[in-house]
Write a structure and sequence with these properties.
The structure is a single chain. The protein has 238 residues and is of the alpha/beta class. Helices cover 37% and strands 19% of the residues. The strands form two sheets. A nine-stranded mixed beta sheet has the order 4-3-5-2-1-6-10-11-9, with helices on both faces. A two-stranded antiparallel ribbon has the order 7-8. It is globular and about 45 Å long.
Length: 238
């Protein structure tokens, strides 16, 4: 199939990847589909860590619009990411992939606390590592958590897998003729104010020279192409 360019990756998934057709809740069939895509990476002997969002369960903006404290809304979102992490871990185990869930907020009855060296050890042993509860702090998105954890575990690549096949100059749902970028520098991505990744995550990757790829999770072989260094989605790098 080709030479593996990236041996250890961090895969950032939105909560919608596990959602029912209407975009909410957890669909076991969708979780199984995501697990099968991760298996394809493991079959190539790639070390995989995953950070999940929680938009399928809770969106903090809803609480803020009703006067909720930002810290409270964010903590609720962190807990929701753990629910998603447990659902995905179960789907992985059911197809024979050993997984471990670690959380930035301790909940020892459900998962391990996040410990950097232990996380790296799980990857070295071939386990799929799922990192829940974001950074453990309010005011930070799960995109930022993904960038931070990618740096901490010495990942070679951060993949933001969405339902869109890259970064566009305009919303492709509004303008079907919108230009899709095959490559952006970090500075270009920051200046464009792209919505698919927050500026803190991009800045972290820029400062630490970590390449990023934005791609469509559901496009066949998109993840494999990314780890092989083949053209897919939008690459953000120096």
């Amino acid at each position: 199939m080709g030479v593996i360019r990236y041996k250890r990756i961090l895969l950032k998934l939105g909560g919608e990847a596990l959602a029912r057709p209407q975009g909410y809740g957890i669909d076991p069939d969708r979780a199984a589909q995501v697990a099968s895509k991760i298996r394809q990476l493991k079959d190539l002997d790639v070390e995989v860590a995953i950070v999940l969002g929680a938009g399928n369960i809770w969106r903090g903006q809803i609480g803020l619009k009703h006067g909720m404290e930002r810290a409270t809304a964010d903590h609720m979102g962190m807990i929701a990411t753990v629910i998603n992490a447990l659902a995905l871990a179960d789907a992985l185990e059911r197809i024979g992939l050993i997984s471990r869930v670690q959380t930035a907020i301790e909940m020892r009855a459900l998962a391990e606390p996040y410990i950097r060296l232990r996380a790296i050890r799980h990857l070295e042993k071939g386990r799929v590592l799922i990192l829940g509860a974001g950074t453990g702090n309010p005011y930070f998105t799960t995109d930022t958590a993904a960038a931070l954890r990618a740096m901490e575990i010495d990942a070679d690549l951060l993949i933001k897998a969405t339902k869109v096949d890259g970064v566009y100059a305009e919303d492709p749902l509004v303008n079907p003729q919108a230009k899709r970028f095959s490559h952006l520098t970090y500075i270009d991505a920051l200046n464009l104010g792209i919505k698919v990744l927050d500026s803190t995550a991009i800045s972290l990757c820029m400062d630490n020279h970590l390449p990023m790829v934005v791609l469509d999770l559901w496009q066949p072989d998109a993840l494999q192409k990314a780890i092989l260094g083949q053209p897919v989605g939008t690459i953000i790098s120096h």
